[in-house]
Amino acid sequence: MQALKSRFKYLFTSTKGLILWAIAFVMIITALWMPLSGPMISWGIRDIAVDIIGYDLVHSEREGRLVMLYHSIAMAVVAIVVYMITGYFKMEEHYRVWANATVTVGYHLAAIFGMWFAYFGHNWTHHALYLFGLSLVFFAGMILAVALWPWQDKYKIKDPKSPYGHTKSGLDLERTALWVLVIAMLGSAALGAWAGAYFGNGFEAFLAEDTIRHPYKTLQQKAVIGHLHIMLALIAMSLPVILSRWYDFKGILHNIGMRLMIFGGVVITLGAWSVTVTPHAHTIIYFGATASMMTALFLVIYGFDQLIKNHVKEEQYEKPTFGQKFKGLFKDPLKFGPLWQMIYFNFTMSGVGIFMAVKLSDIFRVWPHSEERIVLVGHWHVLSGIVATIIILWFADVLGLRGKVRKWFGWSVIIGSDIAFGAVTIYEMKRLFTSEYMEQPVINATWLAIDIGLGLTMLAVGAFLVWRLVDLFKHQGMWTREVKHELGFEPTPTDEMISGETGTEQEVSQ
Amino acid sequence: MKRLTLVLAVLLIGLLASGCGAVPETPKGVSLYTEAGVDPDAWALVPAGEFLSGQYEEVVNLDYDYEIKKTPVTNAQYAQYLTEALAAGTIIIEDSEIKGYYPGDPYNGGKHEVEITEGYYIHMPLGLEENRIFFDGQNFTVKAGYENHPVTMVTWFGAKAYADFYGWRLPSDHEWEKAARGTDGRPFPWGDEITYNHANFYKSGGPFQTSSGYSDTTPVGFYNGSTYGDFKTYDAKSPYGVYDMAGNVQEWTGTLWYQLHDRKMWGANKQSFENYVRIWKYDSATPTYYSPNTGFRVARDAE
Hints:
By secondary structure, chain A is mainly alpha-helical. Chain A has helices at about 1-15, 15-35, 40, 45-55, 60-90, 95-120, 125-150, 175-200, 220-245, 250-275, 280-315, 320-330, 335-360, 360-365, 370-400, 405-430, 440-470, 480. In chain A, helix 2 (about 15-35) packs antiparallel against helix 5 (about 60-90) and helix 8 packs antiparallel against helix 9.
């Protein structure tokens, strides 16, 4: 009993345990629901899964089911982001405990009862518990907003020479950026909740990509469109800020980058909300997106520079050549990967989005709606996938993956996911270079690449989780040490910084 | 690790290099099964009354009887029309395209609305690999084996011109939907569930699909309960006896959208995933769009 209790304590009270369980939870959902989509249908696996598990797939309810599936997975990801914030950023202990506890209960309720309601018959108690779970996740965000309040004196940077972005009054810009994003998420969640309540009661769930060409959209439909775009964007935007601690991001780029993220966070959120009232929302969004993407760019520049410097230092090169420096970038896939994924994102997500916006009338609106819908669905799946890989690569480092396994795991996730996301992008854009009549080889090739890439990524993550599952059975496994270690602490001039070295973290007591 | 990277890179490049488009091989079924499964000249009567429209079953009343063709218009029927229309001067051949006059749409200033003004518009391209209808300078002929397949590569203008020529019309969105699902709100013309034996959709198999996954059109009325070799079909007609309302080719309808120049295409097609074959799912495109997946059928007032 004690053994179970201690492991439960690890998984549900320590930050690393909570994140490990949340990732495993998403993988379980993915494994259980993967048979219902994509090639699994034509391979006949969907029908087998339906027979064994008993999914209730009413045809007219597909859109509603998908909305609940997206929310179920998204709530687990939001929970991971909350854990990362409470782990990395200083806050009073009771706020940390309450935020973690609330979001943990919330995402479990939302996912379990949401999926139960969506796929196994409509018990309205389940639906109520799903909504209650979503509400708890929202409440956890409110706790975070209070806990992060950056104007508290104790969170101000007192040393004017601190390398971390701050104002003259000592306001910590990184903390402020994160706080802005949390507030933006709360408002955006409320926007979705308002519209969702309307559609939920009317049982008229819809997928935004299906309405894209409707000349008239209701206020609630526009709110849903704004909500889904901004929530995903804000989750993605929070990562460069949170991971700044991991990379020990500082200096002038940090100072400017965090200011841009504050500006970008406010503008892009207001832009997404304004979709309900103005046809010019995209213009506003572009300003916000550009600013926040600059923050990610600055982090990438800084991070790459650090990777090279660390390599040069380790190898004791006196006058390193370009090739020697370049090699430093690729030495550690777990540190390189998240930064690279932020670059790759531009080819598979933002680049596609900008091209689509610029050529909407000339190209995409000349194509049938179904082609435009494929691009829309594809590019946000890619963004979600990139967010997931960044978190996974970061977490593998945090849990101390070392040696050859570290390299195999890291490169498998990077190469596997990038093959898949690249192939998705080619598939989305196939009409640029092949006709409907001749497209089958392109479809076959890209889908094979998607399957191989995702398969490789899933195998790597699956192996990682099995490794940690085995560890949980050990009396003195790694989990016994991790239960005492939190992620880090917010940097201040007087604090000792988290080491930028591979896979190491200094123990801190909060 | 380097070796794995190299292998994956070569695999990806090879796959993509081999896949930049190729004319698909013709499925065996094209030469084996050439007859229409249902008489393409037959009409189905749809009586006046209410029906459940859309995914969320809005009650809509069509207070008149009408008739709709039991099958999409076939290549043979369309080629015959083209010959007659050319002789009558209602279409012209210009720049390897069949064109015809259209008086224009009302323009309502929608955000993405393109003004469709009076003029000559493409009805069908000529000389493309995917064409099933050819023009020899005098007559229109159909590629052997495809006579009873639904006409494809026809634009909305071309579909409307055909209907107008014979004094018929393209069905409205509601007329098409009611003919497809009857009055009980079913998701598919034949009932509540779909199998690979009900319709021609993505990877549904059958003699008109190649081993590479390419699906060709099937003759109209192919899914009528007959067995073709070892491939059995179910009788996939709608409550009014209308065929091919799910899969095979998506069909232009006549309803104009307010503030958008797009026209709707109902019924999904041979390349559609299963969930897009549900009756209420429709695609849309500019009226000059043509595709090997798009055809049409016609309607008329009840006699």
